[in-house]
Amino acid sequence: MGKATGFIEYVREEERKRKPLSRLDDWKEYTSPFSDDTLARQGARCMDCGTPFCHMGMEWNGLTSGCPIHNVIPEWNDLVYRGRWKEALDRLLKTNNFPEFTGRVCPAPCEGSCTVALSDQAVAIKGIERAIIDKGFAEGWIQPRIPKKRTGKKVAIVGSGPAGLACADQLNQAGHSVTVYERADRIGGLLMYGIPNMKLEKEIVERRVRLLAEEGVTFVTNTEVGNHITAEALRAQYDAVVLCTGAQKQRDLAIEGRELDGVHLAMDYLTSVTKSLLDSHFMDENFIDAKDKHVIVIGGGDTGADCVATALRQQCKSVVQFGKHPALPKNRTENNPWPQFPLIFTLDYAYEEAKAKFGEDPRQYCIQTKKMVGDGKVKALHTIQMEKTENGTFREIPGTEKVWPCDLVFIAIGFEGPEQSLFAQFGVVNQPMTTTKYATNVEGVFVAGDARRGQSLVVWAIREGREAAQEVHHFLMNAVK
Ligand SMILES: Cc1cc2nc3c(=O)[nH]c(=O)nc-3n(C[C@H](O)[C@H](O)[C@H](O)COP(=O)(O)OP(=O)(O)OC[C@H]3O[C@@H](n4cnc5c(N)ncnc54)[C@H](O)[C@@H]3O)c2cc1C
Ligand code: SF4
């Protein structure tokens, strides 16, 4: 343990954030890391608990508690406090293939479970994680690890999101020859086209992909398995196939006016903007543009927040976000005790920016869109306020109808799960979350990540990729478990 009295002496400090208004002028990351001095103090706050709840990684009532990949957090907190960075990096990489992603975008269930959070603010685990890996790259400690021996076994991974990449990394390091197929033009799944650049700069993703390629992983882009190459052909060429195709089937809103111009699914918006940014820095004009538009985002979740932040950077005239649920409470409720993930009100980056620009939080709560109106182009949304009944359902409040003028609408009401057609072509009956097994009913075909568990988090995708790789390895080597 670093400093026995560290948690008493030092307060939690947050990662440095650029000023909300100035960060709207570009698409660069909005956070920057702690200084080394700050990190030593933050590491010193860790109590090296006998039972480190931060590291357990369980689900309670559908909420994640602790780190799903069981990062050995107290160990690297202590090493950072002592300035032993390289050892901290070694410990971190034992459990996490891609800390540069989770250190930036993870909602940090580890911090929600930190014991210090019982009476004070949690240890700044996520910021410490990011600092360790960033230093690892900056110091040149991260070098390609090329496997010394090859097993002669070939594995195809379909989908290059964090699950596919983690699975590829593990299997490649075990000596198998791995090819990752991706239907998009760039590798990374939602790390590339989903999570916006200001949360995770795409050079960070590309740096990791280059490293994996140098280590021996083969990447094939613009290739949709099931279309450009059939399931049968893939099975014939490879000893095992892992489906890491995500759960990107978007939920739509079947209401009057949905067909109007200016109404888009959130992912079409976010993808078009990131692709154009990367392809031409918007010179190709091939993106949905919110400039000078009144924007409404339907859906109160994180994808909706990313739409808000994107529209702000495009200089929208106004932005509002509709959510179905009431605002979260300021403190934990009795039903959401420590060490569960805290369901409390926070001001995410997008809302902080909207408040700085327009003077108010863009979120509207308990609101339902009844119809969209316009003359070919969307002009307004008609809504009504909702309230929660005693049995947990929602009912409309008569007399609360309202008309919201707008020019652009993004639908961000979640995802329906994985696309089923590829599973059907493989003959796979997907069993999301019903077992801890990644093997499917078809021998040699495995499934992992959001494709197995539904839309989740990057950290869960990494865990699934790692665990699936272990199963595939046993299958290939015919080992007894
Ligand atoms: C807008 C948005 C923001 C998010 N922000 C965060 C965040 O801040 N923090 C966080 O932890 N999580 C976040 N998430 C969730 C997180 O990104 C996902 O849980 C995670 O990426 C899932 O990883 P995956 O590898 O299972 O699938 P994905 O990342 O979805 O990757 C699947 C890949 O498979 C490819 N594919 C599908 N079918 C085929 C096929 N037939 N042939 C070839 N390729 C195919 C797809 O093109 C895609 O690239 C966000 C999600 C969204 C939508
Ligand atoms: S729960 Fe918090 S204080 Fe305890 S070991 Fe983990 S990070 Fe340190």
Automatic annotation (TrEMBL):
Enzyme class: oxidoreductase
Source domain of life: Bacteria
Keyword Amino-acid biosynthesis: yes
EC numbers on record: 1.4.1.13, 1.4.1.14
Pfam families noted in UniProt: Fer4_20 (PF14691), Pyr_redox_2 (PF07992)
Location of the Dihydroprymidine dehydrogenase domain: 25-140
Entry keyword Cell wall biogenesis/degradation: no
Keywords in alphabetical order: Amino-acid biosynthesis, Glutamate biosynthesis, Oxidoreductase
PANTHER family: GLUTAMATE SYNTHASE [NADPH] SMALL CHAIN
NCBIfam families: GOGAT_sm_gam
InterPro entries: DPD_II, FAD/NAD-bd_sf, FAD/NAD-binding_dom, Glut_synth_ssu1, Glutamate_Synthase, Helical_ferredxn
Name of the featured protein: Glutamate synthase (NADPH/NADH) small chain
TM spans (from-to): none
Gene3D superfamilies tied to this protein: Alpha-helical ferredoxin, FAD/NAD(P)-binding domain
Pathway: Amino-acid biosynthesis
Biological process terms in GO annotation: glutamate biosynthetic process
Molecular-function annotations in GO: glutamate synthase (NADH) activity; glutamate synthase (NADPH) activity; iron-sulfur cluster binding; oxidoreductase activity, acting on the CH-NH2 group of donors, NAD or NADP as acceptor
